[in-house]
Amino acid sequence: MPRPGARALLRAEVVRSLRFSGLVWLAEADGVPSGMAACAQASPAPGDSIHGRLLPGRWGYVDTLSVAPAARGGGIGRALMAVAHRELVRPGTRGTFLFYHPANPLSPVFWHRQGYRPLWTMWIRRPAWS
């Protein structure tokens, strides 16, 4: 689903991630931004969305991966995730996790190729006019 204001949302995501985790990678082609990955470290705690879904301990969290439409299919997402995985999976880290929309025609294919499999599925219903 295209998001109105996607550029502003991605900019805010980068700023937020730099402030809180510092785990942000940007890709560029010929000086033009072409992709970004924003990640964090997370540990399940009572009351959060991963408590009871992941084993206790430290996990790498892939928050946002975005590649410009014109740059898709060229390996930028794969390269960003190679760097992210290398940085996220350190000694003492159990693994990595992420949330993605299974109905998105691009997400499941990409994430399965990265080795991810669904642990649980949540469906959200929205009014058609939103």
From TrEMBL:
<dbReference type="GO" id="GO:0016747">
    <property type="term" value="F:acyltransferase activity, transferring groups other than amino-acyl groups"/>
</dbReference>
<dbReference type="Pfam" id="PF00583">
    <property type="entry name" value="Acetyltransf_1"/>
</dbReference>
<keyword id="KW-0808">Transferase</keyword>
<keyword id="KW-0012">Acyltransferase</keyword>
<dbReference type="InterPro" id="IPR016181">
    <property type="entry name" value="Acyl_CoA_acyltransferase"/>
</dbReference>
<dbReference type="InterPro" id="IPR050832">
    <property type="entry name" value="Bact_Acetyltransf"/>
</dbReference>
<protein>
    <recommendedName>
        <fullName>N-acetyltransferase domain-containing protein</fullName>
    </recommendedName>
</protein>
<dbReference type="InterPro" id="IPR000182">
    <property type="entry name" value="GNAT_dom"/>
</dbReference>
<feature type="domain" description="N-acetyltransferase">
    <location>
        <begin position="1"/>
        <end position="130"/>
    </location>
</feature>
